């Protein structure tokens, strides 16, 4: 259904407000049918279907969205890989920040050095807004009716998203929380990699034993190496599910040497001497934790020697950072949310042993064996319709209201409620609602 007739839909007035009446014209039914077709798709298919529906009205190569309400995947793109492969949040965020709801913007967006004619549509149907960008095949201005149709359709889609986010079932909430935690961990690791590179560059620029030409050449080498490493990171993460412990430590060592190469601190490395395979998330976390700890250690006064080593046993990876500094480091000094909390994701532990005047030993322990999975939450035993009914129960709705909302009979609602109470092992609607709120 790619043919859309937006003319005469009467979706709104020129100022974006509702018109005095519906003003239903010959294009209203196709437009409403198209809107229903989009929002009835599974979440992963909404953007592709929205792109297909709009292709007849606004011919385009690719479509992208930045939806701030979605923790699972706020940035999505679809279409020509020549555009989508080079597009990211960095290009979309300014359009979200500067866009005016109800006033679609037509202009050019530069992606990887190439300017593309685009139509950017912002909606405030969600609290922090959402923007849709269509990478057009032509640059001729679009008329007001087409712009109004695209705006109305995007508002409808984002309103639908907001409702799903506000009334998410526990499974969706768990997926979003997991994705948000993973994204935060990745961002933290990239930030530390950038910080390590910048620290190395500053060490070169501040050093007095290199002349200007040598300092520039060294700084350039460091920057180029860092860029190559960052660009290769995504491909490497996809290709490597496990790393031998000795190779994982070698990669850590290479990233640490620039931190101390031109400073007064001597770095001693203790390789694990083991080829035991480490899961990629374990190796990444261990490297990130060591880098973060070492950078804090180097901020201390009077540190002249730092030892970094890994110990690999059958069950545990221990990453140890030991210095000869003042012995005043603590858990708080290592930065909340940067070290200990990251280890928590892998059921790891951080120990800090500081002896004033003698130095500090920081040990990060990560289990290599997956612990026994906890018992599944009782809500996972419920079917899709039962979860819908339970959602209404949690809101305090009675059977008649639930029947009206779900377009089923009251006797069907009673049947579902009885099943819910049995599966959850509770004796009342209130207890079932409490379980739902606890999970959410």
Please provide a written account of the structure.
The protein is an alpha+beta fold and 440 residues long. It folds into three domains: 28-166, GAF domain (Beta-Lactamase, 2-Layer Sandwich); 173-367, Heat Shock Protein 90, CATH 3.30.565; 382-439, Winged helix-like DNA-binding domain superfamily/Winged helix DNA-binding domain (Arc Repressor Mutant, subunit A). The chain is built from 14 helices and twelve strands. The chain has helices at 28-39, 43-54, 81-84, 89-98, 144-166, 170-206, 212-239, 245-260, 280-298, 340-345, 384-394, 399-406, 410-424, 429-439, and strands at 60-67, 75-79, 105-111, 114-123, 130-136, 242-244, 266-270, 277-279, 305-312, 316-323, 349-355, 359-367. The strands form three sheets. A five-stranded antiparallel sheet has the order 2-1-5-4-3, sandwiched between helices. It has a five-stranded mixed sheet with strand order 7-9-10-12-11. Helix 1 (28-39) runs parallel beside helix 5 (144-166), helix 8 runs parallel beside helix 9 (280-298) and helix 11 (384-394) crosses helix 14 (429-439). The longest helix is centred in the middle third of the chain and has 37 residues, at 170-206. It is flat and about 75 Å long. Mean pLDDT is 78; it is low at 1-24, 166-177 and 234-240.
Strand percent estimate: 15-25%
Assigned CATH class of the largest domain = Alpha Beta
What is the string of helix and strand elements? HHEEHHEEEHHHEHEEHEEHEEHHHH
Roughly how many Å is the radius of gyration?
A: 28 Å
The averaged pLDDT comes out at 78
User: What is the distance, rounded to the nearest whole angstrom, between the alpha carbons of the first and last residues?
Assistant: 37 Å
Structural class label: alpha+beta
What share of residues is helical?
Answer: 40-55%
CATH architecture of the largest domain: 2-Layer Sandwich
User: How many beta-strand elements?
Assistant: 12
What best-fitting shape do the alpha-carbon axes yield? flat
Number of domains: 3
Main beta sheet: 5 strands, antiparallel
- List low-confidence stretches: 1-24, 166-177, 234-240
Number of helices: 14
CATH topology of the largest domain: Heat Shock Protein 90
CATH superfamily of the largest domain: Histidine kinase-like ATPase, C-terminal domain
Protein name: LuxR C-terminal-related transcriptional regulator
Organism: Streptomyces lavendulocolor
InterPro entries: HATPase_C_sf, Sig_transdc_resp-reg_C-effctor, Tscrpt_reg_LuxR_C, WH-like_DNA-bd_sf
Domain HTH luxR-type: 375-440
């Amino acid at each position: 259904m790619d043919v859309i007739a937006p003319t005469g839909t009467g979706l709104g007035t020129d100022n974006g407000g509702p018109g005095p009446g519906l003003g239903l014209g010959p294009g209203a039914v196709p437009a409403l049918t198209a809107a229903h077709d989009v929002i009835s798709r599974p979440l992963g298919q909404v953007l592709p279907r929205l792109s297909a529906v709009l292709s007849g009205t606004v011919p385009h190569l690719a479509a992208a969205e930045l939806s701030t309400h979605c923790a699972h995947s706020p940035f999505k793109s679809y279409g020509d890989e020549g555009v989508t492969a080079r597009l990211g949040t960095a290009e979309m965020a300014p359009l979200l920040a500067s866009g005016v709801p109800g006033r679609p913007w037509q202009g050019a967006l530069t992606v990887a050095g190439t300017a593309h004619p685009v139509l950017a549509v912002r909606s405030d149907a969600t609290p922090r807004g959402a923007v849709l960008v269509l990478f057009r095949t032509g640059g001729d201005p679009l008329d007001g009716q087409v712009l109004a149709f695209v705006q109305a359709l995007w508002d409808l889609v984002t309103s639908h998203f907001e409702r799903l986010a506000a009334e998410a079932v526990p499974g969706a909430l768990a997926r979003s929380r997991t994705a948000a935690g993973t994204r935060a961990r990745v961002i933290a690791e990239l930030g530390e990699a950038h910080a390590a590179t910048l620290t190395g560059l500053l060490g070169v620029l501040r050093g007095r034993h290199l002349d200007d030409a040598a300092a520039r050449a060294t700084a350039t080498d460091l920057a180029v190496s860092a860029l190559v490493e960052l660009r290769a990171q995504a491909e490497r993460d996809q290709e490597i599910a496990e790393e031998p412990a000795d190779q994982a430590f070698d990669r850590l060592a290479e990233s640490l040497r620039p931190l101390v190469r031109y400073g007064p601190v001597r770095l001693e490395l203790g390789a694990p001497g083991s080829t035991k395979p480490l899961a990629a998330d374990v190796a990444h976390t261990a490297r990130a934790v060591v880098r973060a700890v070492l950078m804090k250690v180097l901020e201390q006064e009077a540190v002249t020697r730092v030892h970094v080593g890994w110990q690999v046993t059958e069950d545990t990876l221990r990453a140890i950072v030991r210095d000869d500094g003042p012995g005043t480091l603590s858990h708080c000094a290592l930065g909340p949310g940067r070290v200990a909390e990251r280890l928590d994701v892998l059921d790891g532990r951080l120990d800090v042993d500081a002896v004033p005047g003698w130095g500090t030993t920081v040990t990060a322990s990560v289990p290599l064996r997956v612990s026994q999975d906890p018992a599944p939450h009782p809500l996972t035993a419920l079917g899709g319709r039962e979860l819908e009914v339970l959602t209404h129960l949690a809101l305090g709705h009675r059977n008649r209201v639930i029947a009206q909302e779900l377009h089923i009979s009251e006797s069907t609602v009673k049947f579902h409620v009885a099943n819910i109470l049995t599966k959850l092992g509770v004796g009342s609607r209130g207890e079932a609602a409490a379980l739902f709120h606890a999970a959410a």
